[in-house]
UniProtKB/TrEMBL annotation:
Keywords: Hydrolase, Lyase
Gene Ontology annotations for the cellular component aspect, listed alphabetically: cytoplasm
GO BP terms in the entry: secondary metabolic process
Stated name of the protein: Amidohydrolase
Gene Ontology molecular function, alphabetical: carboxy-lyase activity; hydrolase activity
Domain Amidohydrolase-related: from-to ranges: 10-354
Pfam families hit by this protein: Amidohydro_2
InterPro entries listed in its UniProt record: ACMSD, Amidohydro-rel, Metal_Hydrolase
Gene3D superfamilies: Metal-dependent hydrolases (3.20.20.140)
Amino acid sequence: MKMIEKFKIIDCDIHNALGSTSDLLPYLAEPWKSRVARAGLGLLYSGYYSPVGVGRKDAVPPGGGAEGSDPGFVARQLMDPYNVEFGILTGNLFSVSVGHDPDYAAALASAYNDFMIEHWLGADSRYRGSLLVSFLDPLLAAKEIDRLGRHPGIVQVVMSSATRMPLGQRYYHPIYEAAARNGLPVAIHPGAEGAGQSNPPSAAGYPTWYLEWHTNLSQNFMAQLTSIVCEGVFEKFPGLKFVFIEGGVAWLPHLMWRLDKNYTALRAQVPWLKKLPSAYIREHCYFTTQPIEEPKNMNHLKAIFEMIDAEHILMYSSDYPHWDFDAPDQILRWLTPEARGRIFHSNAKQLYNL
């Protein structure tokens, strides 16, 4: 507890949930309101089964409902005991981007955003919101960013890391343009890989077990990051920042090495890049800690942190209320006070202007 009391914390991945689908009904126009009331949300999921479930059993609110659905209980269980100064809400509706109906997906994202602003940001001044968008129609996503992007409680745009095509391609650029116009970072989060209209959850195809699915999420992040850099997103939008949530970090050094090596030989294919790919990553990208890959020999992770300059690009996240929650007093205990202060607090404070 002494460590917790000494440092303020910004948690960059709190999964606030709906109590029930009826929570969104007041924020939906017709025909979507009747559709949800009659048939539910109808979102598509990967179907991979976690034997322990996704949520912590002790995170069910006292009054019932889904884990993470009560703003007050989340504050009491997470924010208060761990000295969390700000909690970045990321939601759990990333599957809006892997369905088949772009108009419904946009309406659902908008309804969630309005619900989140009223019921979460209004409940506790420590909460900050991520603006959910569906990229099934990037122009509608850009419109949503312009609608709410200047709200004082909104700190980033968030969307699925599961896609039909890599995220660097021009199809997505209206989203990035709108985010840059509103001064917001763009974050991606896993969860829908292998569902609906999305990529397979691994480079080899569709695995059998949730264990494989969960492990292979970092493959998708590697592909998305490579695309974003090589397609010149950061040259086209030089002020844009990207946040990679819940994809791990141990893979980052060898990806940067491989990108830099291949760029030196193949730079003619990407003439818009003005510097090494690793330089764009260090200048424009942030990564959250959870699920941190802590080996038995912690010196190995220390070496990786040095390779990626983790002190300046890593941000603490708990993933509350999920089963693999990383308590801030239990992970990365070997960090120096200065590094801990940056990773657990000031990096996010600077990025999100908190």
